[in-house]
Structure formats: C-alpha cells, structure tokens
Amino acid sequence: MNELSLEELIVSIVEPLVDFPEDIHVSSLKKDEQVIYTLSVNAEDTGKVIGKQGRTAKAIRTVIFAASAESSKKVQLEIAD
C-alpha cells in the first residue's frame, strides 16, 4: 500500500469517530527505513481518537501496521495534541 493510500486509510478510520472531520490532518515524514504519520484532529476530538486507556489509538495503529505489512519501511502513527 502506498503512502497516499495509508493517509487516506487513516482519515477514513478517524472520520466517523470525530465531531469535526474537516479538522483531520495527516502528514508524513520519511526517514531511512521508517515513515512517521502524524494525525492531528480538533482539540475536542483528541480524546475520542485516543480512547479509554489508549485503546482506540492502539486499534488504529494495529490496522495501519497490518495495511503496511508489505512495505519494507516501518510505519509509525503519532497523534498530535
């Protein structure tokens, strides 16, 4: 899966969870063997994306990791405050 479709996947997962879908922004930073995606949402939606004890964020990361399994690069998802 290419990087653009991973960004689209992140948005499609997060969009139903938030009250302000227009404030969803995903950026990527490429390093040697790693791609770091940074997800930012409206401040009021941050708790919804993280979930209780981080369960929702962990589930999102699991899906992204599985979707990028074919890639030779390690994929990481960070959620901006």
Features:
GMP Synthetase, Chain A, domain 3; 81 residues; 23% strand
State the low-pLDDT regions, or none: none
Mean pLDDT: 93
Number of strands: 3
CATH topology: GMP Synthetase, Chain A, domain 3
CATH superfamily: K homology (KH) domain
Give the strand order of the largest sheet, numbering strands 1, 2, ... along the chain.
Answer: 1-2-3
The CATH first-level class comes to: Alpha Beta
- Percent of sequence in beta strands: 15-25%
Describe this structure in words.
- This is RNA-binding protein KhpA.
- Keywords: Cell shape, Cell wall biogenesis/degradation, Chaperone, Cytoplasm, RNA-binding.
- A probable RNA chaperone. Forms a complex with KhpB which binds to cellular RNA and controls its expression. Plays a role in peptidoglycan (PG) homeostasis and cell length regulation.
- The protein is of the alpha+beta class.
- It has a single domain, classed as 2-Layer Sandwich (GMP Synthetase, Chain A, domain 3), CATH 3.30.300.20.
- It contains three helices and three strands.
- A three-stranded mixed beta sheet has the order 1-2-3.
- The chain is globular and about 35 Å long.
